[in-house]
Amino acid sequence: MGARNGREEDGMSTATIHEQLDVPQPPQHGNPGGFVRHCNIVTGVVSGLVSALVVYWVGSLFLVPWGTTNSSTYVQAGLDALWAATFAAWVIGFMAGIGAFAGPIRWMLGRDLTHEDAEFLAGRDQGKARFWRYTTDHKVVGTQYLVMALLLFALGGLLAMLIRTELGATWTEVFSPAFYNSIIGTHGIVMIIAMIIAIAGPIGNFIVPIMIGARDMAFPRLNALSFWLLFAAVIPLVASLFMGGIQDGWSVYQPLSSQAPLGAIGYQITIITFAFSTGIASVNLITTAVTMRAKGMTWNRVPVLTVGIIASSVMGLIWFPMFQYSQALALSDRAFGTSFYNPADGGSVWLYENLFWLLGHPEVYVVVVPASAALMEIVVVFMRKPLFSYRIAVAGFAGIVGISGIVWVHHMYMTGWAPSANYPFMLSTELISIPFGFLVLVLLGTIWRGRVWTRLPMMCVYAVLWNKVIGGITGVYLSDVPVDQYMHGSMFVVAHFHFMLMGAGLFGAMGAIVYWFPKMTARTFDERLGSIGFWTAFAGFQVTFMSMFVAGLQGMPRRVLQFDNAFNISNWISTIGAYVIGIGMLIFLAAIIQSWRSGPKAPANPWGAKTLEWQTQTPVPLENFPVLPVVTSDPYGYGVPDPYDAPDDGKSTPAPKKATKQTVGAK
Ligand code: HEM
Ligand SMILES: [Cu+2]
Hints:
mainly alpha; Cytochrome C Oxidase, Chain A; 23 helices; binds protoporphyrin IX containing FE; binds copper (II) ion
């Protein structure tokens, strides 16, 4: 990507510009950062726990006696209200303790943050401590999201191993039915949350601002808020595992969920809080991409990853509130005795299912679209070829954003809600495979006749292409009403969405993490160990879910503890496959941890890539660019003779600058 120096040609820092532009600075009160200097994750957790305890105690004076677990319907309502208030107190108390409200409170008190305060909040000169604080630097927030995603995948993966252990042990029952139910539901929702943040969180936050030539996100403090809200949101979900769990699957259908154990309250508070976190993150990503692009970066020069992240954020922004409402109404029915979903009092369970799936389906594209966009960034670098068609890629994303909101009823063909609507939704569902096909076409077109440089990120492209085709084709089968009449609720459906969410989403995210690892961690990723882990997991994945397709075709229902012996063989094979996934993922995780801790230092541009994030130093300075770049061409001019195009192996010296216009001081 051609770039030249911007306004800050003479290396002026933001502070100097403020002075020159005479930006009035509020007086500095005390040390930079003020109250937030004393806040971190520990003060957050303590403040959250204390708030929860106080609210529980006060509540137990008025609602139900301290320590009540559950009994009659009347007491149940009081108990639900008590725990809803306790979990809410945890979230608000934690956010206060980590310092999330310091900025707005100071503003209200007329003591707005100074430049020094902002620099402190950005984590300047704080070393590793900044990762445990309410830090606004997008690179820190991106790293925090990466660690959170890894933790959630570890929890979701462990639960998956337990599920497969139960299904593989056909001769006995390993877990109690109630606990097994909650493992399935918790596995599902934990993995969904992990997948939603997997790329938009780490890479969206760390890489996108640099990729568009900006110094930070549009709203740095909101950025930190979105991450710490996610942190606070996860705790009630984990707690719910010990409060009877989520007994009715990740979709927590009504009216079952209104009668389920207290764990359901934890789930509801988690989703309500998580929806705020994703909403804030989506607004931030979209505003950053629209308003913070480097000079010269016109829309047709915006890297495709950024376009994919915008598309995914738009879908999240539109549809996530549906999920939030669905749970807020469920909570209200349990704690305040309303009857939104209670047919006996004029409510409707179909209202719940519609609200849930209005998010439930677009959510799969919130996962798959960023993964597809990331792989497009990777394929051009390792095929050394321009992207097959930038326009078709953008059309694919736009098509998915548009159609993804009008397909949700394919999850409700069998509910009896609106049989006459089934066929129009069958049509819209099949239509979405067209823009989805565009994304596959762009990858294949770029691979076609390219000079492949086979490194791990490129291997992920091949793996995801295979999984996408299997997931896509089986999706078309299921979108047909007659087929779904047979397949609905079977293991075939489970295998299909794993091929999409995990096969395309997770394996794509693994490729993206490896590709941007050097820029994010300033370390070189151990590709040998990583490849062993990746391909082991990939092989296990095929075995696990291909045999689940078979079990589904044989008629095996999902979410069952006991089943007919006819399904034994496919379940044994599937369980062995799952353990192989587990081993592969552990090896891959070991490669991440080991490389991050002690991998060789990474050069600024190990892939010889052209997007802006590779044109700045590694480790990336707090301001991202010593001097803001100005863009003069699109980012995919690969294969065009350019002596500057050599991968930075740290040995060969780059060509003299006048060859092509590049960011001054990047190297
Ligand atoms: C280690 C790999 C994984 C294995 C072995 C695995 C296995 C399973 C199995 C066997 C079920 C069905 C249980 C049943 O209905 O009887 C299931 C459900 C589910 N899985 Fe996974 N899974 C894995 C990874 C993932 C990933 C990465 C996602 C990403 C989103 C995911 C999302 C889900 C969801 C949403 C459900 C539905 C839960 C429900 O019915 O409420 N899984 N998984
Ligand atoms: Cu769907």
